[in-house]
Amino acid sequence: MAFEPLNTDEKIDGPIEKKADFDAQMLAGCGAFLVASIGGYAIAVWPFLAFQDIEKLNRFILAGGLSGIPWIIWIAITTRKAGLAAACGGLGGALAISVFMFLRLQQPFIAWRAQQTDKPEYPEGFITLIPVAVPIIAIIIGLTFIKKEEFDAQTT
Fold it and tell me: Is pTM beyond 0.70 here?
């Protein structure tokens, strides 16, 4: 009669070490990517949807602080917990955030050119500067908070 889970007649002393199979590793990685990207996007976007008057500098800074600081913490925590998959998910979310920010920062300037509001209190260069900076920040945070053992394993 075979001894389970080895399906062999050989008797093993001690517990059998279970290793995660490839499918479990893939599901864990994909789940970490999904949670990091969608969670990061939701954290970063909501203040810019909640505060409609971002043409004022104090509202823009408030929305940026409520957006950026928790987003950076989110990427750091998910990268530390789930590794490279979460870091890549954070970068994927950052690219989506960049598109959102590009479009959202254009809105006050379009309204100003249509003479519907006052000129925004921040420079027009923010329209391109912030969307370019977001993925760069995500890369820096991901590289900073990934575990050294996993980083070494991925680079060799």
Answer: yes
